[in-house]
Write a structure and sequence with these properties.
Elements: H1 2-34, H2 41-53, H3 59-77, E1 85-90, H4 94-108, E2 112-116, H5 124-135, E3 139-141, E4 156-160, H6 175-183, E5 188-191, E6 213-217, H7 226-229, E7 233-237, H8 243-248, E8 263-264
Length: 266
């Protein structure tokens, strides 16, 4: 009996030190992800071209990997238990294609998914991705409801409007979609960069999108530094990068846990 009491007493004394150790390990892991190289717009474009030309990745291959990473990050940050319906706003470029892929995967993850795709790209790849969405039961919205009504049907918004090639100003035809993301009153998950932001300088002086989550793809861009994102969660999806790319662009990337395709960064 006395031995049991001694063991219990020792456990009580050690518990605070164990918690401190665990906290310090977690803090260390996150702090290690802060010391990263953030890509300029020029570097981001060049990296993509290297993947296509030097490493022979195809557009649809990278899009599938990116869209799956986006869906995984959204599910991690906003699970179906609390956010079971999602509206994905897709733009006309590769960022929009990532959103179409993410829509399919989120449906498989158990979400009720709708897509708004106001300026469709007339290319076979994008037409196929949209067709797949329809076949998986994704609701395609031709018109958006007013921003103040989005909360009636959705719990989370996914911003796949503009990618790292974006340069202000926003085209008039896409302003309503961006306004819905800004004024919808729902958490917004931005694909690679928050739409409307300068890729290097972050949000401009006008009313800007304030994402709750950013999913960087391949490597984070300058506008996703903590000073711009504030309290937003930040995940990275880019486990497919070849070692040569990582070395060429001096990328210091966090380690992906287990078989995960995403990792949270500072």
């Amino acid at each position: 009996m006395s031995k049991l009491i001694n063991n219990l007493f020792r456990s009580v004394l050690l518990l605070p030190f164990v918690n401190v150790f665990r906290s310090s390990v977690t803090s260390s892991k996150l702090s290690n992800t802060c010391n990263m190289h953030y890509l300029t717009q020029e570097e981001a474009v060049a990296l993509d071209q290297d993947l296509f030309n030097e490493y022979k990745f195809s557009v649809d291959q990278l899009m599938e990997l990116a869209g799956l990473s986006v869906a995984a990050a959204v599910a991690k940050a906003f699970p179906t238990s609390t956010h079971n319906s999602a509206l994905i706003v897709c733009g006309p470029g590769n960022n929009g294609g990532d959103g179409l892929v993410a829509a399919r995967h989120l449906t498989l993850f158990g979400y009720n998914v709708s897509v708004h795709y106001p300026k469709r790209t007339p290319k076979p790849l994008y037409e196929s991705l949209l067709h797949q969405c329809k076949q998986f039961g994704v609701n395609i919205l031709d018109c958006l409801p007013p921003p103040n009504e989005l909360q009636k049907d959705y719990k989370v918004l996914v911003d796949a409007l503009f990618g790292f090639s974006f340069k202000p100003p926003v085209r008039e035809s896409l302003k309503p979609a961006l306004d819905a993301l800004i004024d919808g009153g729902l958490p917004v998950c931005s694909v690679d960069i928050p739409s409307g932001w300068d890729v290097e300088k972050g949000p401009g002086p006008d009313k800007a999108l304030k994402p709750a989550l950013v999913i960087s793809l391949s490597a984070p861009k300058l506008c996703t530094q903590p000073e711009f994102l504030g309290t937003a969660k930040h995940y990275l999806g880019g486990r497919f990068l070849p070692p040569g790319i990582i070395a060429k662009y001096n990328l210091t990337l966090p380690s992906y846990p287990n078989q995960d395709q995403i990792v949270q960064i500072c």
